[in-house]
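Note to self: keep these together.
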Amino acid sequence: MGAWRRVLACATGLIALALGASPPAGAAASGPITGRLDRPGYTVIAVAADGRAAATLASSGSFSLVPTSATVSLQLRAPNGTYAGPIVLAVPAGILKHARTALAQAKNKVRHAKTALARAQKQLRQVHGTPAERGAVKRLRQAKAQLKKSEVLLKRATTQLTDVQRLAAPSWAIVGVKAGATLGAIRINPAAGYARAGALSDRVWTTSVKTAWTAQAKHAVPIGNGRNDGLVRSTLRNGAFMGDPDRDGVPDAIDVDINGNRIFNNVDSASAGRSAHAAQAGSETINSLLDLGTGIDGTVNVDAGLSDAQIAAALPNFAWFALDIAPGDSVELDCGGSPDPYSPTGWSGGLSWCAKGGTGRLLEPGGPLDGQPFPACCDSNGNGYGTMINTNPSNSPAGQVMSLSPHAAADLIGTGDTLIERVTTGGVEHQLVMTLQYSVATVDALVSYDDGQGDSATVSYPVSGPGSQPPGPPGPGTQQNPFPVKADPSTGRVTVRVTLWRPQRRPIPPDANGAGGDACLSDSPPCQWVDIGGLGYAAPIEHTGAFCPLSAFVSHGANLDYLPLPFPGVKDLVPDQPANPSNTLTYTLDLTTCAAAPVYSEGRPAPPYSFQPGDTRALSFSYFSGSSGGNGASSVQGDQGVYFTRVS
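Structure:
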């Protein structure tokens, strides 16, 4: 693991995607929420408005969990470890019938009251000027009061029926569940990415459902769900009281697009809710980081012409994953799945790259457990969850971090992968829940360079070398065959104009109703890959832990802007778009300044290094998400290492 990557792993805190904490004393209601899923092996997650969470495995379908707050939404993790959507509640037929009956009765009362008023008015006219007039006036006053009271009841009954009809409409879904609720049977719809509780009795409805917690729906399916992971457009911003400002049905603690603008949180500079996660009272945050790093001879990039098979074969060789370890006496990582006596590994399901029997390996350079299977290396109690090990050698203020080598292909790690840290403190367990934003399947790639002094090249991929599959003779840009560069005789400085392709990810599908996901899937033909926009780009100097300073970025294209922190470089202003070789970004880098004034993260000065004629240096053309800052993140980063040698 390169030193600069350790810096990123320890310092990157970008977007709090999924939160949880042990509830303060008295915060939870008196009783657990119970129910019975029609499919086994799902994990039920109760998420409060402030993001605190409680989770339990419903191994046989039945579940009981004590929420962290009086009202929560219930979310599901599938047996394979991915987000499976919210549980919604239907309005009982009896409630709707009662509301209609109440309205009919209220209308009758108004009709009778109007009749009584007309009778009283007639009687008053008949006895006007006689001794009976006084009594008639009194009866008229009483009739008016009764009519007013009846009209109030009618207005209330009309409002109640309207509210119930709105709740029962297919354009809304109820997600609010009160502590102590007994939900009974719950049917999961994997194809639509949500679940629905069965018919509730009027009593259960009254005591168990928070009707103010509603999400937008299409054909009764929440627009945010387990199919699109909340990547869906929403114009509403009034759901903060329920922890879901865009009211898509996926709470901020899990949502990959918290403001409903169809842009992932960790590349969305407009996401006003980015820091709101950390401000949630009583909540904790955990950061994760997926890193892809390789030399030019190991580069995979769709725009560079690499095939799906080449990309799938390469990713397991250079990806690694870092995850914060929450404070506590002991922390176990739950990647899903459940015990299975009929499986050779004793386990079934879960995320293949970190669950029991999967491909994950602990990444602890120089440590005794480096390369050991996780969680098998660290499961002393045999429950299938590995105890998290601090692999952060610097013991930096960022806290403890565990790093894994997933050894997983691109289609096995990605958006919606849901991790739970089970934190035990003083013998009491609480859970932290987080979801991955997206998995970058490729690295950025150098298209061409030009030093303005006659040295230039357009790279042809794949590049052969020790890191290629299979290994071959060293191609251009490798350590054994570096790109030549010269200094401008008039200034003595070496500058290179570099053009890059962005990294790619797979598109996110819409749900069964066509809501959300990547819009390019509606193109003809649908997109197969997405060029990731909105990333930050920096130029780390290999083997030093330092970066080229911001002053080394002497110019950039119109689709970029300068980015001083957290890592000096440029910010891509272009959003996600279908992968296409014409989608490039360009900037000019002063390599002389990189050597003379390198910096560490956050701009701290680093020791200078030599880049005189005859010197060879490796630069990393790197990308990272969440460049706008924030508090906690599911982040991605990666780089392509390229060697340059100064010939004059």
